[in-house]
Predict the structure of Putative exported protein.
Amino acid sequence: MSRFKNEVTHLQAHVRTLRLGGLALLGLTALLAVGWWNAPRDLTIHIPPDLRSGSVRKWWEVPPGTVYSFAFYIFQQLNRWPTDGEDDYPRNIRALSSYLTPACRAFLLDEAGRRRDSGELRQRVRGVYEIPGRGYGDNPMTRVKALSDDDWIVTLDLSADEYYGAEQVKRALVRYSLKVVRLDIDPERNPFGLALDCYSQAPQRIGRSPDDNGEEPAP
């Protein structure tokens, strides 16, 4: 009789163990489901532009080349006034506001207002482009300075051309020192996860072309 009683006790203990194991698996599955649900659906990974050789890097690191290309692209778009700077410049600032820090956006809007009031934007057509031989690929070590993992100083050597109607009124060679910060808060509006924080120092003239009228370099 005791033999059967021991067997029943053993089976009851085994069933109890299986139940506890099932509850543990259920809890683990619930934790995995919560982790899967909270995992990011999109992940921005910065790939170096030159893929001729392999690259191993942490996914959150931003390569200097990406920082430079971002700064140049946003700055060039800000300074592209195809018809009339009085309308184009404020419109560019508003259109690119997702790529600007709040402080930089306020600074640029204030600067646009001052230049508009002084007549510097009216009917002005403007564009900037890299000076040949002074781009990132020519000397990358001097173009991007990392202050930390989240902010950088980018040096752009650009030619700034301005026209009033059909007449060219400016062609200046200018060095712009721009600050770029990590701002990965709205991937829908800003997939770069970076933002322009305006100037780290005032623009500097680095040369003058024969048709420059001597005006100071404009931001």
